[in-house]
Structures are given as C-alpha cells and as structure tokens.
Amino acid sequence: MESFGRYRLISPLASGGMAEIWRAQADGPAGVQREVALKLVRGAPGASADFARMLVEEARLASQLHHPNVVQVLELVEEGGRFALVMELVRGRDLGRVMERCRELGVRPGLARAVQVGVEVAKALAYAHRLAVDGRPVGLVHRDVSPHNILVSYEGAVKLADFGIAQVTSRLDLTDPGTIKGKLAYMAPEQARGGPLDGRADLFALGVVLWELCTGRRLFARESEAATLAALLEGEPVGQPSAWNEAISPALDAVILGALEKDPARRTGSAEALRAALAAQWLELARGDSEHELRDLMQRLWPDGDLPTMAAEPTALRPTPAPAASPAPPSDGVTLLAPARRRRRLRLVAALAALVVVAAVAAWGWPRLATPPEPVPAGAPGPRVGATPALGEPPSTAHGLWLLAGEDAALAGRGEGLMRVHVVPWAVVRVDGVLVGETPQELRLRAGTHRLRAEHPALGAAEVEVVVEPGSRQLWRPALKR
After folding, report:
1. Distance between start and end Cα atoms, the chain
2. Is the dihedral of CA 127, 131, 137, 139 positive or negative?
3. Facing residues of 82 across strands?
4. Quick check: 193 and 263 in contact, CB under 8 A?
C-alpha cells in the first residue's frame, strides 16, 4: 500500500493487535507538506455498522482533546471500508522502548525522571477526566494507560496516546491473542472484572506503571493471562516500592500505593490529586539530582533522533510475545526468578561503563517491561511484600549476609534455599561464575555451598561464599569495593 486517501505512506512505525501505525505525509498548497502518524484500525473493511458508528463517535470525542500531554487526533478518514485515525507525529519512542534502551546501554536515568513521567501522564488524565461538551461532563476514561501508550519525544515531552480508540477496541474485543496480557497487567480490578469504570481506573494503571518504573520489576504480570488475573484480583496486597528500591522515600511510597488501592473508594480520588502529590515528590528529587531532564536522557539514548521502523525495531503496538517455557534448572543449581540480561547487553554495559554517571542513593534502574519475569512456582515465596527486612539484627555471617526468619517448606522439599541480593545503586550478579543479571535479584539455589559475586563498573565488586540449607531464606547486601 502506497497511500491511504490523500496521505502518502512513508514507512511503517509499529503494528499490533488493534492497528498498524504508519509515518505518512500529506501535500498541501504551495508545496507545504505535513507529516502525521496514520493509525490503520483493524476490524475493517467489512466492519459492522456498530463498529463504524462507535469509531466515528470516539474519534470525534478524541479530536476535542487539546492538551500538550495528549497525542492530538486530527481526523478520521475512510477508504474502501477501512478506517484510519490521523494523529500528530511524535518524534520519539514509547516508554517501554525507552526503558529497554536504558537497559541495553547501561544508563541509569534517575528516580526524578520516573516521577516526572508520572506527573506528565497525570496532567493528561486530569485534563481528559474533566472534559466537558456543552457544559456537560463527558466522563472520558482512557482504559489503556500502559508503557506502550506513553510516548516520550526526543525533546523530553511526555504524551499519552489512544484516547477514545481504546474504548472502541475494548468494547469490541479487537485484539489479537497475546496482546491482552500486557494490558491486563495494568488494568484496575474493576476493569478486569468488567464492572463500571470511572477515572480512578486510569489512576490504578498509572500506579502500576510508576511502581514498575521505580522498582525495576513487574507488578502483576505472570506467565499466563489466568495467572496475571489471579495476581491482580486475588494476590497479596501490593508491597511498598521501597522494599525493592531503597532510594524511594516513605512519602513517594504512599503516593504510589494510594493509586494502587484495589478498592476504588480507597484509591486516590482524582488525577489532579495524584498530579499534585507526584509534583511535590518530583521537586524534592530534582533538588538532589542534577541530571533530571528527560530531554538529556532521550538525546543520550538516541543522539541522531531517528524514528523507529517496523523492519528494524517494532515498538509500541507490537503484540506481547508469549512467554517462553520455564527452563530446567541449569547444572550449576541456580534457578532464576527474574530474567537474566543477555550477553550482548552485558557487553554493551561494559563498553559504556566509562560513560555511566553513578547517582547517589537516588539512582535506580528502568525495568525491561517487554519481557515479564518468570513466575514464582506454587508454594515458593513470591516478591517480598512490605518493608525491607530489618537490618538491625546481627548478620549470620560476615560480608553483609543475613539469615531471614522463617523456613519455606516447599523449597525445603526440593532441597533448595532462597537468596535475595540487594545493592545500592545496582550491581551485576554472578553465582558460581554464572551470570544472573542486575540487582535486585531473587534466586533459588540448591542446598550446598555457592560463591556469589556482585560488581559495578564504577563502584567495584564484592564476593561471598554462602552455605544454603534446604528451605533457608537469606539476604545479601554487599558493600562494593574497588
């Protein structure tokens, strides 16, 4: 396809369950050209009259949103029974790809930038939630606040995409197998149950995004849709983000957890309230971090400011890949509960180590959201909920190693123990010489003696020999030395 109506299709940008997005161009008078993003919506040609009517209705509504943090919908066009949304072209990347790029290059963006993203998205939601037509509130709910719908431009602007169209696709179930999982992991419980929604559902989704940005871990995503839904609706209460990132203050903990209340009546009441609370936290963080501008980060990640293409780098709307089958434990007796970094990424980290500016305690790592972590097997302890284990007790051995209270019967039955590794700001961990990835790590180790090593390109390394008893739970907090 070379054109769609009056728009010339230049290159494909992304493809996913509900649409494919093209970089397109329209010619105007006197040779004036305008580049846009053209979203070709699935479900047509041959779409039902109900689909066409709903799409036109929602596109009309979305086109009335005029806000710097919202991707502008310019018009709805139709050709040959197929519909397309014409939107402003954001020269940048979706948030999920930004986080992946940070991991690839070993860049530590800083907690202030994560909170800034939350502030900007909350601004967009506050504006959309209070939208009124002819003086009457519309009650617009986004329904799909997730990293692939949060765009960050090369100039550091943050924009929320897909208002309106998300409602059409959710009502008609226009998604391919595999795409629902990523969305389900960000849904509010009432949305997952199919209940009535208001703007608080969007706040829950933003809370999930913030929790994951600040901790470097997935919150609800599991190995299957059923397991993800169970974690969302029936799982343990959401733990404090600071349990996984000590740079997070109690005040920021409270803000994020307020958005993540599963009961809408107890959740943060409005996007404006969430924006104000996050803005206060951002001011505190920015005072102590000289590198907090999103533009600086984007220029560092993509110096040439190139736009993605599907052939080279599928982005925002690619279907979520089905998780790989859990591998059998390797012969060295280490079973990973979090995905290991690829060897290629480690080589990049090493090559760019001289460029990494090590922040103080406020430094943190962006998670690789495109790949959910492997689930904790039934009966095994999951991600820790609540505060960091007390560190005032004397260590059971030297080198920052603590034996945590309680024995896990399931692990004991398998002849394994649990080892948690935390390093501030971060470190690469090896067990018996085998790479397992960046901290924080949670590992199952076979009973016996193991050697752990944590290393940071600028702060140095630490090693310890541990004796793992069946069912034991241990925590290692090494002090890195050059």
Report:
1. 58
2. negative
3. 79
4. no
What's the topology of domain 92-301?
A: Transferase(Phosphotransferase); domain 1 (1.10.510)
The region, left, alpha or beta by phi > 0 then psi within -120 to 50, assigned to residue 287 is alpha
Q: Is 198 a catalytic residue?
A: no
How many Å separate Cα 213 from the centre of its chain?
Answer: 6
| Percent of the chain clearing pLDDT 90 (strictly above) | 34
The pTM of the whole model exceeds 0.70: no
d(CA 333, CA 415): 11
pLDDT digits (tens, 9 = 90+) for 245-255: 888 999 999 99
Please, where in the chain does CATH 1.10.510.10 lie?
Answer: 92-301
Cα–Cα distance measured from residue 454 to residue 478, given in angstroms and rounded to the nearest whole number:
8
Task: Give yes or no for residue 358 having a pLDDT over 60.
Answer: no
Q: Is residue 236 packed enough to be buried (19+ CB in 10 Å), middle (13-18) or exposed (0-12)?
A: exposed
Q: CB of 452 within 8 A of CB of 476? A: yes
Of residues 121, 102, 313, the one with CA closest to residue 209: 121
**How far apart (Å, rounded) are the C-alpha atoms in residues 250 and 107?**
25
Residue 332 pLDDT grade (very low, low, confident, very high; cuts 50, 70, 90): very low
Q: What is the pLDDT of residue 167?
A: 59
pLDDT confidence tier of residue 328, bands split at 50, 70 and 90: very low
Per-residue b/e over 289-298, b at no fewer than 16 CB within 10 Å? bebbbbeebb
Residues 377 and 341: their CA atoms lie apart, in Å, by 21
CATH class of the domain comprising 3-88: alpha beta
Query: pLDDT tens-digit profile of 65-91?
Result: 899 999 999 988 888 878 888 999 999
Cβ–Cβ under 8 Å, residues 194 and 188: no
Instruction: Compute how many other C-beta atoms are within 10 angstroms of the C-beta atom of residue 17.
Output: 19
Taking CA atoms, 279 is separated from 210, 251, 282, 294, 386, in Å, by 13, 12, 5, 15, 25
Q: CA 84 to CA 209: how far, in whole Å?
A: 28
Segments of the chain assigned to CATH 3.30.200.20:
3-88
Q: Is the pLDDT of residue 360 over 90?
A: no
Q: What is the mean pLDDT of the chain?
A: 77
Catalytic one among 94, 144, 202, 253? 144
- How many residues does the structure list for the chain? 482
Say whether pLDDT at 165 is over 70.
Answer: no
Residue 352 has pLDDT above 50, yes or no: no
- Closest Cα partner for 69 from 177, 152, 166, 5? 152
Lookup: tokens for 237: 């209460």
Residue carrying structure tokens 């959710």: 170
| Nearest residue to 369 via CA among 112, 148, 110 | 148
What sign does the CA torsion over 414, 433, 375, 472 have? positive
